[in-house]
Amino acid sequence: MKITTAKEGRVVVLRLEGRLNLVAAPRLKATIDEVVATGTVFVVVDMGQVTFMDSSGLGALIAGLKRARQGHGDLRLCSVSEQVSTVLELTNLNRVLRPYPSVEAARDGW
Amino acid sequence: MAGDYCLTGLAVPTSIDRLQDLLAQVREDHPDIDETDLFMLETAVVEIHGNVVEHGHPPGRLTYAFELDVLPDRLVGILADTGSASPDLGDLDEMADEMAESGRGLWLARSVLDELEYHRIGSRNSWRLVRVRHDPAARAQGA
Fold it and tell me: pLDDT tens-digit profile of A36-67?
């Protein structure tokens, strides 16, 4: 999975591309940890090019959310596919990790 | 081995992508299969096999075998491995805490399937996964 990082004002946007599974999840978690460690605690994860997510990927997002909140920030998802949306709904995490329709919508209010 | 599609190998992290590539081939070969049915089956396969890769014993030395039958009314998969320990089936019954970073895999697998059975057969773990097929046209009308 490819991860592209872009700082846009006080927000970092992580654009993911590919499968967010057991293989990719540790790298996502490490990337979010690095971003928050630099002091940028508002993170948008753009899932528009993520073709698949499993529970490991979900775990990495939860870990990232907790890390961002520990720094008094937040983490939001946007542009999720039907498969990702289904995983969020089945695990009841669509409220904690509420998906937004776009990066702009996700960063609104920050 | 029987099955319309078969894959075997070592249960190492790269094998997860191999399984997903196989299911992508199924998608290409069978455009009539409802996309939701396919990604639900894929989710279950990845969760169960991911558990084997991550927790199977002895690590890095297990072999796995996957076979899939595309039937007119259902998708039937068999996922077997040579691991010595049976999985913790308690994960099937309880959802992890909301902010837990792990522990959802088997529960999620069961949630997306119509049938999920586990058997210990000789020295192998064997999972049978069944997803009933839906009519894509009917699903589109209902949406």
Answer: 999 888 999 999 999 999 999 999 999 999 99
Helices (H), B31-127: 35-55, 105-111
Determine the angle formed by the axes of helices A55-70 and B35-55, rounding to 10 degrees: 80
- B chain contacts of residue A59, beta-carbon cutoff 8 Å: 100-102, 104
How far apart are alpha carbons B106 and B91 in whole angstroms?
6
Start-to-end CA distance of chain A, whole Å, equals: 28
pTM of the model: 0.93
- In tens, the pLDDT along B78-122 reads 999 999 866 666 656 667 778 887 888 889 999 999 999 999 999
User: Is A47 in a helix, a strand, or coil?
Assistant: strand
SS3 B87: coil
Report yes or no: B54 and B103 within 8 Å, Cβ to Cβ: no
CB B4 within 8 A of CB B68: yes
Quick check: helix, strand or coil at residue A4?
strand
Distances B37 to A48, B29, B41 between C-alpha atoms, Å? 21, 15, 6
A26, closest residue in chain B (CA to CA)? B101
CB A40 within 8 A of CB A19: no
Q: Do B112 and A54 touch (CB under 8 A)?
A: no
Q: Does B29 touch chain A (CB under 8 A)?
A: no
- Under 8 Å between Cβ of A37 and A71: no
- Split at pLDDT 50, 70, 90, the class of B74 is very high
What pLDDT is recorded for position B1?
Answer: 44
Residue B117 has what pLDDT?
94
